[in-house]
Specification:
The protein has 340 residues and is mainly α. The protein has one domain (3-339): ABC transporter involved in vitamin B12 uptake, BtuC. It has helices spanning 3-23, 31-43, 53-88, 100-114, 125-148, 154-178, 183-191, 199-217, 220-226, 230-235, 240-262, 268-280, 284-308, 317-339. Helix 4 (100-114) packs parallel to helix 11. The radius of gyration is 21 Å and the shape is globular.
Amino acid sequence: MKTGVKILISIIICIIVLVLAVGIGSVYIEPFDILKIIYSNIFNKPLTQDIEANLVSIIWKIRLPRALIAFIVGGALAVSGSVMQSVLKNPLASSYTLGVSSGASVGAGLVIITGFTIPLLGKFTLPFIGLLSGLIAVYLAISFSAKIDKNMENNTIILIGMVFSLFINALITLMTALSRENIERLTFWQMGSFSLKEWSDVMILFPIVVICVISLMRFSKELDIMTFGEEQALTMGVEMKKVKWILLGLSAALTGSAIAFVGVIGFIDLIAPHVVRRIFGSSHRLVIPMSMLFGGAFMVVCDLIARTIIPLSELPVGAVTAIIGAPFFAYVYFDKRKVR
């Protein structure tokens, strides 16, 4: 099958998944009614009388922004994972490996426990502090790696990132134990959720993700070269230390901004890149945008399952991605090794 056809099919699947996610719930809404409501709100056109006013509120104010934020977050995590795996040459690598999620959890935990609010940011204080603390954690991990190993070998970065993650996770456990009155909120945030997301969340997160993804795509050539090894990349003129800093920083920004808004959600960044490489090959010119589409669609499906599988209740989406993702990733990874 030609690449163009695969891309077209992927886009169509994403659209179908988004429409289903918006239509399915406690109140089922027909796909054509969904499209009419979206068209009416975008172009400020009057709706036909057969569409009830409460359906407009359900679609436009609740389900559509939730589905879009899920798609953006899933895509951001998937792109970040694909870049991390190529830079560190490790199929299990992700921004979480470098302590992004742990750092973000500490920042978010402090905001939840203290009730601290930045006047200009209001409800966005938690995402802002979460993103900032996640990026600080990654910066410290990479800086420490650079001091210990001037060449910034991949194994050094991964090991130091894991040590930082373990240390920060211990701080999170301590915070949870000392603030039992906030334990439910802290635990739920660490498992991820898209509930109560609004258009304001979409408007802030979307440009951040777009800028990071476009910036990463500009390094597609370098990423392709780096997959052959650091020595090969150096002989071909790639400034490894500088490029690593940029790529790891942008990937951490993607993951940090995503989880700062919705909490910690795993496995998307591990699954999506492997599936995309199997379908589209290893060229990052395709891997990055297709990871965005596949990761986004997969996250929307997981969120749909999380909010509909149990009537009148909602599961943490991180639990759903783990239940689906763990065996799926194990199959993809070990089947690949068996072929070798």
